[in-house]
Specification:
Aspartate Aminotransferase, domain 2; alpha/beta; 263 residues; 11 helices
């Protein structure tokens, strides 16, 4: 991680109030006031950068975490979630529909396999599991009908290391999205987006918090994907991160590099 990223880990996304506090404030509110009915209508139609509607859609403290982790990852935007699995399910469900085809590595966290084999399959998504270390298996499984590919950059718990660049190239050749759970690599060691990944998922419960205090997750990618595909699904299905957990994650990012390198 460069010196610039170490600075981002402390300062990116900070939203200070009129009191100019040094430590980030916790905005423990689920609702926001409007000057008039017209102002409320305008905000619902198009909220500005520092305008919020309801905490399930967005909150100032949650937004600080989203912007800070996106800066560390090199992503354009992010949506914070209630847990890592809320991020996995949210991304996969938001980006697929009945009849779509998903190719995924077989070596995955058990809950990820449940989402793929049970939840998505229940709604008509076709799922093909492959040996993630076998590039020929990926090449044979990915077809023009494939909507996205999914894998863990380092699998949990078997620690298989997937060739991100090669799988991304195969997927992009047919116009498929590449969605990667990058939790074991962390933003400290990860260059997933540079290697071709479209969407990066983290369980913030793991290294990002790092101290066993709270659940959290985040989905990272381009603004078009995050605000156009992920946000509509997440805000209506309720998987948003709480402001207090977001504040814990913001503070934890300050020491992420020190902790991960020491580990």
């Amino acid at each position: 991680m460069t010196r610039d990223k170490r600075t981002l880990a402390v300062h990116a996304g900070t939203r200070r109030s009129q009191f100019s506090e040094m430590s980030e404030a916790i905005y423990m509110t689920q609702g926001f006031a409007y000057a008039s009915a017209e102002a409320a209508e305008a905000r619902f139609e198009q909220a500005g950068t520092d305008e919020f509607i309801y905490a399930r859609y967005g909150n100032p403290t949650v937004r600080m975490f989203e912007e800070r982790i996106a800066a560390l990852e090199g992503a354009e935007d992010g949506f914070a979630t209630a847990s890592g699995m809320a991020a996995v399910h949210g991304a996969l469900a938001a980006m697929t529909k009945a009849g779509d085809h998903v190719v995924a590595a077989r070596a995955l966290f058990g809950s990820c396999l449940y989402v793929l084999e049970d939840v998505l399959a229940r709604f008509g998504v076709q799922v093909t599991l492959v040996d993630g270390l076998d590039m020929q298996a990926w090449a044979e499984a990915i077809t023009p009908q494939t909507r996205l590919v999914f894998f863990e950059s380092i699998s949990n718990p078997t620690l298989e290391v997937i060739d991100i660049a090669q799988v991304s190239a195969l997927a992009h050749a047919v116009g498929a999205y590449v969605v990667v759970d990058n939790v074991f690599s962390t933003p400290v060691y990860s260059k997933a987006i540079e290697l071709g990944v479209d969407v990066v998922i983290y369980s913030a419960t793991k290294h990002i918090d790092g101290q066993g205090r709270g659940l959290g997750g985040v989905i990272l990618g381009t603004k078009d994907v995050i605000r156009g595909i992920i946000e509509p699904f997440m805000k209506h299905t309720g998987g948003a991160m709480s402001p207090f957990n977001a504040w814990m994650m913001v503070k934890s990012l300050e020491t992420l590099e020190l902790r991960v390198r020491a580990q």
